[in-house]
Amino acid sequence: MAARARSQERRAEILRAALEVIAERGYRGASLAAVAERVGLTQQGLLHYFPTKEALLVAVLEERDQWDSVPDSQWRLDLLGSLVEYNAMRPGIVQTFSALLGESVTEGHPAREFFTRRYAAVRGNMAQVLRAEYGDRLPGGLTPEQAAPLMVAVMDGLQFQWLLAPDEVDMPEVFRDFLRLLGGG
């Protein structure tokens, strides 16, 4: 059991290091050798935990989603505001996620399938949140399903604007403004 715990600890350490390297260099510039060096392993040693760079990338993305996870039925609009505030305190994570998202739109990128699945689920969750808050129609007349992609677009678009101009874009405040707009007031 102790060996298994050490193995899980080591995997977590590798994921943190990979996140840092990707944040610094981008996915394409990040190498397994750089990640291995950061955690004191050989590249061959790293491959014991993650057999390919793509496997490591997907594990990094899944780990990041675990940090932000809330059971689907428990998401509420006020929690979304709290998530935006939380993200504003961790620019490195947001930068890595945003960089990988941007790269994933290219054909054949190893994270493309992950993001495609993730966005389908997130849109569904946002529709549930909006339905719980507003019923079948939002004050502006949209259905929750129509408004959900807009909610996701605002959240992700704000992250890009904030990363590029953190002194000019107050991400949590702008998101609160959007929620007021969405609510019709």
From TrEMBL:
Q: Where is the HTH tetR-type domain?
A: 8-68
Sections of the chain in a coiled coil: none
Which PROSITE patterns does its entry note? Answer: HTH_TETR_2
Q: Which GO terms describe its molecular function?
A: DNA-binding transcription factor activity; transcription cis-regulatory region binding
Keywords recorded for this protein, A-Z: DNA-binding, Repressor, Transcription, Transcription regulation
Q: Which residues bind DNA?
A: 31-50
Fetch the InterPro entries from UniProt: BetI_C (IPR039538), Homeodomain-like_sf (IPR009057), HTH-type_TetR-like_transc_reg (IPR050109), HTH_TetR (IPR001647), Tet_transcr_reg_TetR-rel_C_sf (IPR036271)
Q: Which domain of life is it from?
A: Bacteria
A Pfam family name for this chain?
A: TetR_N
Q: Which PANTHER family does the annotation name?
A: HTH-TYPE TRANSCRIPTIONAL REGULATOR PKSA (PTHR30055:SF226), HTH-TYPE TRANSCRIPTIONAL REGULATOR RUTR (PTHR30055)
- According to UniProt, the name of this protein is TetR/AcrR family transcriptional regulator
